[in-house]
Every structure is written in C-alpha cells, then in structure tokens.
Amino acid sequence: MFQTEVVLLVQSLVSDFWTAFFNFWTEIGYTHWIVPLILFILFGISLRAGFILLHAVFWNGMVTFHLKEWFALPRPCSVDQNVQLLGKGMPNPTGFEKQGAQSFFGSLPADVVDSLRTNPIDSWGLPSGHTSNAMTLWGSIALFYKKTWVRVLAGFMLIFIPLSRIYLGRHFLADVLAGYGIGLAFVMLFYYGAYRQEWFQIFFESSWIQTVWDLKVCLLLIYLALVPGLMLLFPSFNRQAVGALLGLNLGYLLLKIGGIPRDSGTLLQRAARVLVAAVFYFGTDRAGAGFQSLLSLETTGAGEFLKAVFTMILVIWGSTEFSIRLGFFKREE
Q1: What does the alpha-carbon distance between residue 197 and residue 55 come to, in Å, rounded to a whole number?
Q2: What is the rounded distance in angstroms from the CA atom of residue 231 to the CA atom of residue 59?
C-alpha cells in the first residue's frame, strides 16, 4: 500500500483535462471550502446538524494532524522522483528514485524514511487529511439527509477527493485508506454517539435548568467549557483550531441562555440567515486580521487564538441573534 507503482498507474492517465479535474476535487476538500458549507448547513438547514458537523470536522482535523506528526511518513513524491507533482507547476525536487515499498503490504525503506525525517522536503503523508475530512463531513451529511441526490453527491465526494490526492502525487493508497478509517470513526462517534441520542436532542431544547443536572448533560458542559481550556496547556495543539472550538462552544452557550431558535423558516428566511452568518464570518475574520496587524500579533499563537475565538462567538451567537431580531429566526415558544 506504500508502493509508488499505484500512484504512477493513476498518473499514467495524465492530461490537462484530468489534472484540472482532480485539482478541482482537491480544492473543494480544503478547509476554506468546508467551513462555508457547514455554515450553510448550520444556518440554512439545521443548527443541530451543523453543530455536530463542526465538532466532528474539528476533532478529525486535530487527530489527523497529530497522527501525521506521530507516524512521520513521507509522501510518494518524496520517495520517487518519477512521481509527478501534478498541478504544482514544478518538478519533483526529491533525490530519491523508486524508493517506495517493494510489495503491497511492505513498508517504506527505513533509511529513506530516516533521511527524510532528518531533512524533510514536504509535510507528512499518513493519514490523508483530505480523505478523513471528506469521510467525516460527507459521510455525516449522507446520514443526516437520507435523500438519493445527497447520497449520490456524497458518493462522488468520497471517491474523487481521495482519488485526486493519489493522482496529484500527494498520497499513497495506505494514506487514503487510513483517512477513510479515521473519518468513519468520527462519523460513528458524533452521529450515533451524540446526534441520535435523546440526551443530545434535549440539550438543544429550551428546558435548560431542568436538564442541567443530568449527568450526561453535565459531562457535555464540561466538554464544551473545559476541554478547550485544557488543550491550551499543551503547545502541540494548534492555537487557531483550539480558539475556533472554544469560540464555537461559548457562542452556543450564550445562545442557549437566550434560547435556541427553531430551524424552521421560508426559503428566503433561510437564505437570509446564511447570508448574515457569512457576513459575520468573513467580516469578523477580516477585522480580526486587522487588529492582529495593528497589535503586531499576526505571527503569534495568541493572536490566532483570540481571532478564532471572537470570530466563532460572533458567527454562532452574534449572527443568530441578529437574524432573530430581523425575523429570520424564531425562538422556541
């Protein structure tokens, strides 16, 4: 599964059309496309589903990143100069040739891996973040919305996003299969372990005081409020990601105090809610970047953390309250 022959076989199809085709699928697998999609679901379709998706994608991304660092295994383009960096517009810079695994279940040569760990020329490959993100996001969406066209779209995403990573020379088959497995684990955890559970549904209802002393709800409150704070004690956790999680949770808790609004509304109201959320998100993110620059915090972890916290609070709580006042959302009676 670490053979470069698999990658070279897929790359044998190379043409301008296929490179543009797979570049498209790779592009929509990046975070800057995933976040707007989740905002659309959160404010246009279901706050509950969007909340779960944000948490699932966050934890998948965090776990995938740390597994990459832990395994520290190179990409196929790093071990074989015959693997093309399609879509990059540059030649493969590696000095190794045909140093992939020699059999389907074989491992990469230890001396090559050690050399690349000492002098890395790229980020690590195992597992594929594009694949685990696609599985977490689109696998969950297919379960949330059991419609044929949604499942067909999810199927395309789950096939072509991972395949694009092999075609572009960025991942081995093993990386992609590991990504599928990790993503599936988070689908199971957040969909069946939370979304389908009665105690989670109660947490989105208006009865706050009556349910707050329930053990599972108390544990959920601890998860929302304390876990992000504890993560700050460990430098290995990305400050921007932790800030986004904390801001998401604080925004939700502020919203919960006033009452979670219903997901119902006309098509125009739903579109207006999505537009308001997008303005809050991109506006706050741009303003936060400006304040970072003004305070000379743009390259610091603290600056990224604070910007992410306030951006998510204003998106989750601020844009929802704004939409409620404009009549686009209605609270539970």
Answers
A1: 16
A2: 12
Position 290 scores a pLDDT of 66
Give whole-number Cα distances, 323 to 210, 252, 273, 315, 331, in Å: 27, 15, 6, 11, 11
Torsion-angle region of 179 (φ positive above 0: left; ψ -120 to 50: alpha; else: beta): alpha
Domain end point (choices 162, 196, 230): 196
Q: Please indicate, yes or no, whether residues 13 and 160 belong to a single structural domain of this protein.
A: yes
**pLDDT tens string 97-119:** 888 888 888 889 899 889 889 88
Tell which of 196, 227, 244 closes a domain: 196
pLDDT digits (tens, 9 = 90+) for 226-241: 888 888 888 888 888 8
Q: 18-33 burial by CB neighbour count: b if 16+ within 10 A, else e?
A: ebeebeebbebbeeee
Q: Domain check: are 139 and 258 in the same one?
A: no
Residues 289 and 160 in one domain: no
Q: Judge if 274 and 142 occupy the same domain.
A: no
Domain count, the chain: 2
Q: Under DSSP, is residue 330 helix (H, G, I), strand (E, B) or coil? A: strand
Q: Is-contact 152 159, C-beta < 8 A?
A: no
Distances 260 to 10, 23, 206, 218 between C-alpha atoms, Å: 49, 40, 7, 18
| The pTM of the whole model exceeds 0.85 | yes
Structure-token pair, residue 185:
């684990």
Reading the block at residue 113, the tokens are 């891996």
Range(s) of the domain holding residue 80: 1-196
Residue 32: HSE in the Cβ half-sphere, 13 Å Cα cutoff: 4
CB 270 within 8 A of CB 40: no
User: 172 and 249 in one domain?
Assistant: no
**CA gap 144, 175 in Å, rounded:** 27
Specify which of 62-76, 282-296, 298-312 reaches the highest per-range mean pLDDT: 62-76
Residues 184 and 243 in one domain: no
Residues 153, 11 within the same domain: yes
* Residue 178 sits in the same domain as residue 286: no
Helix (H, G, I), strand (E, B) or coil at 41: helix
